[in-house]
Design a protein that fits this description.
Layout (H helix, E strand, L loop, with lengths): L6 E6 L4 E3 L2 E3 L2 H15 L6 E6 L9 H7 L1 E2 H5 L20 E5 L4 E6 L4 H6 L6 E5 L8
Parallel strand pairs: 1-4
Antiparallel strand pairs: 2-3, 4-6, 5-6, 7-8
Helix pairs in contact: 1-2
Length: about 140
Protein backbone atom coordinates (compact mmCIF):
# COMPACT_ATOMS: atom_id res chain seq x y z
CA UNK A 1 0.00 0.00 0.00
CA UNK A 2 1.87 3.02 -1.30
CA UNK A 3 5.13 1.33 -0.43
CA UNK A 4 4.23 0.98 3.25
CA UNK A 5 5.66 -1.98 5.12
CA UNK A 6 3.60 -3.94 7.63
CA UNK A 7 5.31 -6.57 9.77
CA UNK A 8 2.94 -9.46 10.52
CA UNK A 9 3.74 -12.22 13.00
CA UNK A 10 1.76 -15.32 13.91
CA UNK A 11 2.47 -17.39 16.98
CA UNK A 12 1.23 -20.35 18.97
CA UNK A 13 2.56 -20.33 22.51
CA UNK A 14 3.01 -23.40 24.72
CA UNK A 15 -0.17 -24.98 26.05
CA UNK A 16 -0.48 -26.60 29.44
CA UNK A 17 -0.60 -30.37 29.09
CA UNK A 18 -1.04 -33.62 30.91
CA UNK A 19 2.03 -35.78 31.50
CA UNK A 20 1.41 -39.15 33.06
CA UNK A 21 -1.93 -37.94 34.40
CA UNK A 22 -0.36 -34.86 35.98
CA UNK A 23 -1.15 -31.37 34.73
CA UNK A 24 1.98 -29.47 33.67
CA UNK A 25 1.69 -25.70 33.25
CA UNK A 26 2.94 -24.18 30.02
CA UNK A 27 3.27 -20.79 31.70
CA UNK A 28 7.07 -20.86 32.21
CA UNK A 29 7.58 -21.55 28.50
CA UNK A 30 5.02 -18.88 27.53
CA UNK A 31 6.84 -16.29 29.64
CA UNK A 32 10.06 -17.11 27.76
CA UNK A 33 8.27 -17.16 24.41
CA UNK A 34 6.75 -13.71 25.00
CA UNK A 35 10.20 -12.38 25.89
CA UNK A 36 11.49 -13.85 22.63
CA UNK A 37 8.70 -12.17 20.68
CA UNK A 38 9.44 -8.83 22.31
CA UNK A 39 13.14 -9.20 21.49
CA UNK A 40 12.28 -9.79 17.83
CA UNK A 41 9.99 -6.74 17.81
CA UNK A 42 12.43 -4.44 19.62
CA UNK A 43 14.22 -3.15 16.54
CA UNK A 44 11.22 -2.86 14.23
CA UNK A 45 10.05 0.63 13.32
CA UNK A 46 7.33 -0.31 10.82
CA UNK A 47 3.71 -0.98 11.85
CA UNK A 48 3.31 -4.39 13.52
CA UNK A 49 0.58 -7.02 13.85
CA UNK A 50 1.17 -10.01 16.16
CA UNK A 51 -1.58 -12.60 16.31
CA UNK A 52 -2.20 -16.14 17.36
CA UNK A 53 -3.00 -18.60 20.09
CA UNK A 54 -1.25 -17.35 23.22
CA UNK A 55 -2.79 -20.09 25.43
CA UNK A 56 -3.15 -17.49 28.18
CA UNK A 57 -6.03 -15.37 29.45
CA UNK A 58 -5.71 -11.55 29.42
CA UNK A 59 -4.91 -11.47 33.15
CA UNK A 60 -2.14 -14.08 32.90
CA UNK A 61 1.31 -12.88 33.96
CA UNK A 62 2.85 -13.71 30.58
CA UNK A 63 0.43 -11.37 28.79
CA UNK A 64 1.51 -8.26 30.70
CA UNK A 65 4.77 -7.58 28.80
CA UNK A 66 3.20 -7.88 25.35
CA UNK A 67 0.17 -5.82 26.38
CA UNK A 68 2.60 -3.16 27.60
CA UNK A 69 4.33 -3.00 24.20
CA UNK A 70 1.38 -3.51 21.81
CA UNK A 71 -2.34 -2.74 21.70
CA UNK A 72 -4.82 -5.58 22.19
CA UNK A 73 -7.20 -5.14 19.24
CA UNK A 74 -10.10 -6.66 21.16
CA UNK A 75 -9.92 -4.16 24.00
CA UNK A 76 -9.81 -1.35 21.43
CA UNK A 77 -12.81 -2.20 19.25
CA UNK A 78 -14.20 -5.59 20.26
CA UNK A 79 -17.81 -5.98 21.30
CA UNK A 80 -18.94 -8.76 23.60
CA UNK A 81 -16.78 -11.30 25.36
CA UNK A 82 -14.12 -12.12 22.74
CA UNK A 83 -14.01 -15.76 23.82
CA UNK A 84 -12.34 -18.01 21.26
CA UNK A 85 -11.81 -21.40 22.89
CA UNK A 86 -12.87 -24.09 22.64
CA UNK A 87 -14.81 -24.27 19.40
CA UNK A 88 -17.43 -26.88 20.13
CA UNK A 89 -20.62 -28.12 18.52
CA UNK A 90 -22.52 -28.28 21.81
CA UNK A 91 -21.47 -25.22 23.81
CA UNK A 92 -20.18 -21.69 23.52
CA UNK A 93 -16.49 -20.85 24.09
CA UNK A 94 -15.32 -20.16 27.64
CA UNK A 95 -11.79 -18.73 27.29
CA UNK A 96 -10.12 -15.79 25.64
CA UNK A 97 -6.68 -17.07 24.62
CA UNK A 98 -6.40 -15.93 20.99
CA UNK A 99 -5.35 -12.36 20.24
CA UNK A 100 -4.50 -9.79 17.63
CA UNK A 101 -2.03 -7.17 18.87
CA UNK A 102 -1.01 -4.12 16.87
CA UNK A 103 1.58 -1.39 17.28
CA UNK A 104 0.27 1.94 18.50
CA UNK A 105 0.44 3.47 15.03
CA UNK A 106 -2.09 0.97 13.62
CA UNK A 107 -5.76 1.89 13.92
CA UNK A 108 -8.17 -0.93 14.74
CA UNK A 109 -11.59 -0.21 13.22
CA UNK A 110 -13.40 -3.43 14.16
CA UNK A 111 -12.82 -6.80 15.80
CA UNK A 112 -15.08 -9.83 15.89
CA UNK A 113 -15.17 -13.48 16.86
CA UNK A 114 -17.64 -15.19 14.54
CA UNK A 115 -19.38 -18.10 16.25
CA UNK A 116 -21.50 -20.06 13.81
CA UNK A 117 -21.86 -23.53 12.30
CA UNK A 118 -18.89 -23.01 9.96
CA UNK A 119 -16.47 -21.67 12.57
CA UNK A 120 -17.47 -24.40 15.02
CA UNK A 121 -16.10 -26.93 12.52
CA UNK A 122 -13.05 -25.06 11.19
CA UNK A 123 -10.72 -25.42 14.17
CA UNK A 124 -10.58 -26.12 17.89
CA UNK A 125 -10.68 -22.31 18.39
CA UNK A 126 -12.89 -19.65 16.88
CA UNK A 127 -11.24 -17.10 14.60
CA UNK A 128 -10.65 -13.54 15.69
CA UNK A 129 -10.90 -11.03 12.86
CA UNK A 130 -9.70 -7.43 12.95
CA UNK A 131 -9.97 -4.69 10.38
CA UNK A 132 -7.08 -2.26 10.61
CA UNK A 133 -5.92 0.96 8.99
CA UNK A 134 -2.23 1.53 8.47
CA UNK A 135 -0.70 4.90 9.22
CA UNK A 136 -0.32 7.23 6.26
CA UNK A 137 2.63 9.04 7.84
CA UNK A 138 5.10 8.16 10.51
CA UNK A 139 3.13 8.42 13.73
CA UNK A 140 4.96 8.07 17.07
CA UNK A 141 4.91 4.53 18.43
Amino acid sequence: MNGATLRVFSTHLQASRSVGGTSVSGQPQRVQQVQGILKILSGITEPIVVMGDFNATPSSIEMSPIAGRLVDAWTTRGAGHGLTSPADLTRDPGSRIDYIFVSRDVEVTSVSVPVDDETRMASDHYPIIAKIVLPTGRAPR
